[in-house]
Amino acid sequence: MELSAEHLREKLQRDLQAEHVEVEDTTPNRCASSFRVLVVSAKFEGKPLLQRHRLVNACLAEELPHIHAFEQKTLTPEQWARERQK
């Protein structure tokens, strides 16, 4: 099973039809996998945070059992545009 940042980014972008995905490998010493992700997708429109996170978790269902720590931020395109203007 591949657990690279690039693999996760591609899968999230494809499966969630995301317009922007950032994946940071935060693994400190390579003894356990750790990632931080930012996903911007229109699929998040009208959904509360928990439902958004469930969509991401479902997308990465094969990978998550092998990841020690996983932090995610999920935004709609509108929220992403506002955040970038700050």
UniProtKB/TrEMBL annotation:
The keyword Cytoplasm applies. Pfam families: BolA (PF01722). Coiled coil: none annotated. Acts as a cytosolic iron-sulfur (Fe-S) cluster assembly factor that facilitates [2Fe-2S] cluster insertion into a subset of cytosolic proteins. Acts together with the monothiol glutaredoxin GLRX3. Interacts with GLRX3; forms a heterotrimeric complex composed by two BOLA2 molecules and one GLRX3 molecule; linked by [2Fe-2S] clusters. One of its GO terms (biological process) is protein maturation. Keywords: Acetylation, Cytoplasm, Nucleus. Belongs to the BolA/IbaG family. GO terms for molecular function: 2 iron, 2 sulfur cluster binding. This is BolA-like protein 2. GO terms for cellular component: cytosol; nucleus. It is found in: Cytoplasm; Nucleus.
